[in-house]
Amino acid sequence: MSHNVTDTVSPSPGNDAVRAADRVSAEGYQQTLSRRHVTMIAMGGAIGVGLFMGAGGRLASTGPALIFSYVIAGAIAYLLMRALGELIMYRQTSGSFVSYAGELFGKKGAYLSGWMYFINWAMTGIAELIAIGLYFTYFFPGVPVEISAVCALVLLVAVNLLSVKAFGEFEFWAACLKVGAIVIFLVVGTIMVVMNAQVGQSHAAVSNLFLGGSMFPKGGLVMILALNAVIFAYNAIELVGITAGEMKNPEREVPKAIRAVVLRIVVFYVGSVSLLAMLMPSNQYKSGESPFVTVFATMGLDWVGSVMNFVVITAALSSCNSGLYSIGRIFRTMANNGHAPAWLTKMSSRHVPYAAILSIAGVYLVGVLANIWLGGSHAFDLALNTASIGVIFTWGSIFACQIMLRRKKGKVSSLPMPGAPWTSWIGLVALMVITVLIGFDTMSNPDGSQYLLGLWTLGTVPVLALVLWFGWQFVKKNEPKNALFT
């Protein structure tokens, strides 16, 4: 059996080739995405609230040492993408790591990978939508967070239901906007540091990295503890694996996309956080506000802060848009394998898994409304941390699949993981350490008391495990015996 996805539409005798818009994979998806789409989809999905909003609170609690957190997480992300690249070049599928887990670890592997990825994007999407609502209060203070979030959700669902081409174009231009904004920020920020520009009561300078005599004013452990949130910031780079099933010429374009995504995201993240730490003392940033907006507002340039706030809203929209796309495809794969309700397999005439997309949109809606009960700040932080559990499991499953692929098949990919299997084991161990350290993570309440965010997050793990166990008892009775894990 061939490992490559074949097309169900062949060229007619009178045509030299099938138009790209007419190419449909064996899974029923249109293969219309180009490398520019895939690169920007992965970058757009990753560059979201983790950087544009989460970095502010983490700079305040960690200090300039947060830079090293991003470097370490970037190294793990590089290993992850190389492991995923080997899997993709072995076999392209929109089921991505869920499909690989099913083939290499069996039915339980596919079940766990699929539902943990669902938890990842369910919580990520909720966090993104809450962030959008919070950002809108900058322009419209009287509009409730939930109203803005629901309006954003309706827009994104509409884009996803149109076609994969419409999704790809929306994501490409939205990602271009925020990537362009980051590039401009890197240039302007560097000039400000070189010129020792005044920012509020302080000056932009490299010396801001060493206020208190060290880049670790709160100790090295805090830097390690921040890895949980930073890993979340890199979330969505694995989208390259899912988009491969709807990509033109994946064998040629995927390796290029993987290299471009990792390099650019690490440069943008590490560069942005480094400049933020140099522009202002890190203790002047605060949770719940974009650090980019904080910098320009402190300088009295409210109009620049307004522009950045618009970019931040676009960033969150783009990231959430990617989440709807990815979990829609994964959900349909799970349904095909009997691990989710059968009606989630339904496709529209435009080859869009509309049932799966509408289902995850319903979950997002419930999460946004729960924000009223939980309160914006803690709801966002808890959603972000819970999403991190899903991210860690997803990344861990990709490393595990790469190890098992080599063990069972040998070197069968044209893009082998360098240093395998040891590099994949390094990635797995790093993720395990980060998981344990989540329990020590805390956030400050407005009154100065500590909120045990990490313990609350780890407290969800046994609950999730119990729910997944009961779910497995049910689905294994209804799972088709000939599931192909496509």
Automatic annotation (TrEMBL):
Domain Amino acid permease/ SLC12A: 37-480
Gene3D superfamilies: Amino acid/polyamine transporter I (1.20.1740.10)
GO biological process, one term: transmembrane transport
Pfam families per the UniProt record, alphabetical: AA_permease
This protein's GO CC annotations: membrane
Broad class of where this protein is predominantly found: membrane
The protein's name: L-asparagine permease
